[in-house]
## 1
Amino acid sequence: MSDILIQNVCKTFSTKEGEVQALKNVNLSIGSGDIFGIIGMSGAGKSTLVRCMNFLEVPSEGQVLIDGKSLGDFSEKELRKEREKIGMIFQHFNLLMQKNVLENVCFPLYIQGKKKPEARKKALELLEIVGLADKANAYPAQLSGGQKQRVAIARALASDPQILLCDEATSALDPQTTSSILELLKDINQKFQITIVIITHQMAVVREICTHVAIMKDGEVKEQGLVAEIFNHPKSQVAKELISRDTGADVEHVVTKPEIQSGEKIRIVFSENSAFEPVIANLVLIFHEPVNILKADTKNVGGVAKGEMILQFMKDSSNVAEMKEYLKEHGLEIGEAD
Ligand SMILES: Nc1ncnc2c1ncn2[C@@H]1O[C@H](COP(=O)(O)OP(=O)(O)OP(=O)(O)O)[C@@H](O)[C@H]1O
């Protein structure tokens, strides 16, 4: 397990058109064993920040500390050694297309000086973990996107990393495959106690898997904290925007109890202050629990919701009080339904 501390990190690129300030005084604290999401729109500085975490990009100012040691103090040789502790996976997998799956996973082990039999044994164990032992002799071109990412994950695990950096690792995948890769990352986090940093532009990914999140815009961290806290009480405009765009379509969520047996019914009234955001959809996404809409009579009047709805919660739900609270916090009046 390792922790990462980003202190006052700035990164400026010089281009023909002038200077680009990709990171502006970024401060982050990523705890050991966290699954930490970094989210923002294109150009927010996410990739630059994650590349600073293993010094593939050297910050123009500030420090990156892994387990309290500043990467800036390391020699090139020490840095190479330190990087073995930090695995990385990418959106487009970056596999060696001329090598089969087994050899792709063996590659970092050969670089470490492992002999072929030892490397192959370990690579096969890793392929077992990612559920691809039967594809050891296949070539990347013969695999689906999800399978390619599993190979990339096995390869990243080959050097027994303590940190795994994932740069848009599910952006090229469909919702169902995204969900299975996120499950695998969660398992890996728990099984190997690896700290995972996930760069994404999809709030659904953060919601599904991350414990903590930092929200970036224009090279700055606008908001950071516990995922549940930010989903329930977003403060920055960018957090509110990202949450309201989260329709749940990016990740297939498997609801364990799809059938709603009749539980408590409530009437909710969209009052003057209710913004017409998908409050009910977000409620279901956040609490991972279906609700029945028994009656809906609402209209969008210039961005303000008007009307009422009758909702029914699941029988024996333990979340009813919190769900009602969530609805009230979003400007809805709650009453009893007949
Ligand atoms: N090597 C570079 N040279 C010049 N400018 C760069 C370089 N790398 C990144 N930038 C600029 O820095 C800013 C942040 O880029 P970065 O790739 O970190 O953002 P991002 O949030 O990861 O975006 P995306 O989701 O599109 O990958 C952008 O304006 C980008 O053009």
Note: Confidence is low (pLDDT under 50) at residues 255-259.
## 2
Amino acid sequence: MSAAQPGALMEPSLALGRLELSPGPGTGTGPAAPRLPAGPRAPPGTGPPHLNGCVPLSHQVAGHKYGVDKVGILQHPDGTVLKQLQPPPRGPRERDFYSTVYAEDCRDPCLLDLQNHLPRYFGTWSSPDSPAELYLKLEDVTRRFAKPCIMDVKLGRRSYDPFASQEKREQQIRKYPHMEEVGFLLLGMRVYQVDRDAFDSYDQHYGRGLVKDTVKDGLARFFHNGVSLRKDAVASSICRVRRILQWFESQQQLVFYASSLLFVYEGLPCCSSSPSLSSPLSSSSVSSGDDGGGRAGPEAPAEPEVAEYNNNNIRAAPPWDYGPPTINTNHRKDCAKSRLHGNGGAAPTEETAQDSALCQEDNSAWKRSGELRRAPNGNGGVEGEGEGRSKSSEGEELQGEQVKRRAGDAAEDAEVEVRMIDFAHVFPSQSHDHGYIYGLKHLLTVLEHILCDAA
Ligand SMILES: Nc1ncnc2c1ncn2[C@@H]1O[C@H](COP(=O)(O)OP(=O)(O)OP(=O)(O)O)[C@@H](O)[C@H]1O
Ligand SMILES: O=P(O)(O)O[C@@H]1[C@H](O)[C@H](O)[C@@H](OP(=O)(O)O)[C@H](OP(=O)(O)O)[C@H]1O
């Protein structure tokens, strides 16, 4: 089944025309990205710097890679991500998508809302050395994390668009014949293991090996840090995916093929809020050596207030304060309450929509990425804690209230990002994106089962 009927779509060039609202390519078009106090040093093993100090994105978990494929992803010295425009029509289509959604004169509430689920877009960029090579300049969604655990999940029931050649269709189906049934595909991930102070990485072959019956355990690995399951990160991810589902259910103007969700959570134990996380490591006991993405090495400037580095050795703004847990943000409490007092008896779709609304409300304080946000802490319980928990097996239909309570039980929200990325195959439409919605709902069910199994 396809996510949308080709007949319901415009011819590709028209589609592009309709999306093309903002200025065309050029060096440094669009708003300026925030500058960080210091530029990146090339991470160990990446060789000499590329293109005016830009380096290959060291924490890329999937997709076309710089130096491997014809196009790839770089990191700019200011900390942003540079995605090289793919050959037409893919690259221009993705650029037009971003420039439309982020157009200064955009008044479309649907697109304005969509901005909340995307990386920020800073226009196109090109190096003075190669002005013809265009890049999309994007917020690095992982930037505020010290040890970002990252997962890329492709959504939809098929990963080719309605205009794909027969050859392309067959190539995509061959790669993952379960896409239509599962509705998503894990493209790659890296998971911080607290016991070894190292990242475990999984490439696209891992995800392709997962079928309907094994996808839950396969996905659960993303949330396991070698010591325990990060229930807090699962619960926060559910909340964020629900908000994205709510957006999809509210709109009938765009369809997305071969587009991904990028999940990120903080792997560093001291930053985790989960009471279930009984890591033997404290922040000070985490090695600062090269762990394939370590924190600042000996040559890093000693500025404790901003001394967190993500795995790319990019100086990251202080993602939270380490002081006493006095600022237990209201939005999280509200979310827990909402989950617990929501209408648990609703049918799954309504329930999801309602929960999305609740999460939306909850996350109003999270509107824009790039803002400094305080990490949650683990103090205090949530209402309803300890009430009637019962473990469910995979496949059992979970009651709404059960799921909500367990999300609440999973304690305070973890620092999590879930953003939509990769828009080379986005088209105008006049109906819901059924393929993407199907994938989101199944993904939610799987995440909810991971949480319930762990309760
Ligand atoms: N804004 C971002 N912030 C952080 N990491 C990003 C961002 N955009 C992309 N990445 C990293 O780059 C990877 C590939 O991104 P993306 O899917 O956009 O590239 P692609 O080459 O179009 O992929 P594909 O080959 O699947 O079409 C992601 O899995 C992620 O690791
Ligand atoms: O996971 P893999 O094996 O790297 O496969 C790639 C993946 O399916 C990409 O989504 C696809 O780009 P599109 O989604 O843009 O089609 C790319 O097509 P390509 O080889 O034509 O670039 C594939 O090679």
Note: DSSP finds twelve helices and twelve strands in the chain.
